[in-house]
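Narrative of activities, Objective 1.

The group set out to show that a structural description can be obtained from nothing but a protein's sequence at a throughput compatible with the screening campaign. Below is one input-output pair from the validation batch, recorded exactly as produced.
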Amino acid sequence: MELSDFTPKTLGKEAIKPLCKKGKRNPQNVLLIVNPLDYWEHIFPATTFLNAQGVYVYNVLPIPGKVIQSAAVPVGSMVAGIASDYFMGLGGAQKIESY
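Output recorded for this entry:
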């Protein structure tokens, strides 16, 4: 997925609308997964603001989600998904026994 900007209109149409499954679900906990180079060049500046107290806040999005950096995503691309739709597991050589 490629976005021209991070405005609410663009994020809603390009990132969130496809996750609605033609209006059959309301996406919450959306993950936007991007390459670290894209994060620092494009997303960080677009989502960082100086608040009224004079403190910078970052990763401010107009959607119910968060940005995750991953080198597995090609530069210039973004993956959008809902966290509960995915499972992450790790394998190892140790055996786990239950009693």
